[in-house]
């Protein structure tokens, strides 16, 4: 299969290690991965701020970059959800519909498409798992705790394949970190307090690392950790699955 690697702009600019780990992990698993170099922002920040009607050029470029691939894979739940729900085009409506149905967040692609059952990864550390809202409630990567249903977690299933890892328990397994994209700018104080609460839950349980499927959430928590002088680090899920 031919995979188009979709790297969100904030990952490209601030966390290229997450993008590189995603590429290396997919190649280890035997798939043919290509990175369209002309890709830019998918348009999520504009849409979240009420300006989706100005996203036409972003949509057309996304279609042009990724229409030739069997699947599109990205290390970002929020950007994948945006493309799935909002990619559209008056010029190429059929192509937009096809692409929106074949774009996958990384952990979902590994579990649902590749059916990964083992990984040659090693990470002997205590890790707290942050279940981002877009991934959990939008892409259904894990079960919501308020539902009376069997629990599941696609990122958790993959992490449990990693040798030596210890997943630390949390008091509130699916609490929002407060980032919320443009929410953290419009509601800075609320966002910061939510992030502090989320970080505290990981710290009191002895996490050495915090991981998740969205570097945006992890970036928010990393800033709080830095201001606290904490030695706890954040890593994208792909970086742990590719470790060792």
From TrEMBL:
Pfam families: CCG. Residues 4-83, 127-221 form the Cysteine-rich domain. GO terms for cellular component: cytosol. One of its GO terms (molecular function) is oxidoreductase activity. It comes from the Bacteria. This is (Fe-S)-binding protein. It comes from Mucilaginibacter segetis. The lineage of its organism: Bacteria, Pseudomonadati, Bacteroidota, Sphingobacteriia, Sphingobacteriales.
């Amino acid at each position: 299969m031919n995979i188009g690697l979709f790297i969100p702009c904030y990952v490209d600019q601030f966390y290229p290690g997450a993008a590189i780990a995603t590429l290396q992990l997919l190649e280890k698993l035997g798939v043919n991965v290509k990175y369209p170099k002309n890709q830019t922002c998918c348009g999520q920040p504009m849409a979240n701020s009420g300006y989706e009607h100005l996203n036409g050029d972003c949509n057309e470029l996304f279609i042009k970059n990724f229409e030739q691939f069997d699947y599109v894979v990205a290390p970002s739940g929020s950007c994948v959800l945006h493309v799935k729900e909002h990619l559209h085009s008056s010029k190429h409506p059929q192509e937009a519909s096809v692409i929106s149905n074949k774009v996958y967040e990384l952990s979902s692609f590994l579990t649902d498409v590749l059916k990964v059952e083992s990984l040659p990864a090693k990470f002997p550390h205590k890790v707290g798992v942050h279940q981002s809202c877009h991934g959990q409630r939008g892409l259904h990567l894990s079960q919501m705790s308020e539902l009376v249903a069997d629990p599941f977690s696609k990122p958790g299933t993959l992490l449990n394949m990693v040798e030596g890892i210890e997943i630390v328990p949390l008091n509130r397994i699916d609490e929002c970190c407060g980032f919320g994209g443009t929410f953290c700018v419009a509601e800075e104080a609320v966002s910061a307090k939510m992030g502090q609460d989320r970080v505290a839950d990981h710290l009191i349980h002895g996490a050495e690392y915090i991981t998740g499927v969205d570097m945006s959430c992890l970036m928010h928590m990393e800033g709080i950790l830095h201001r606290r002088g904490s030695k706890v680090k954040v890593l994208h899920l792909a970086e742990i699955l590719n470790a060792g």
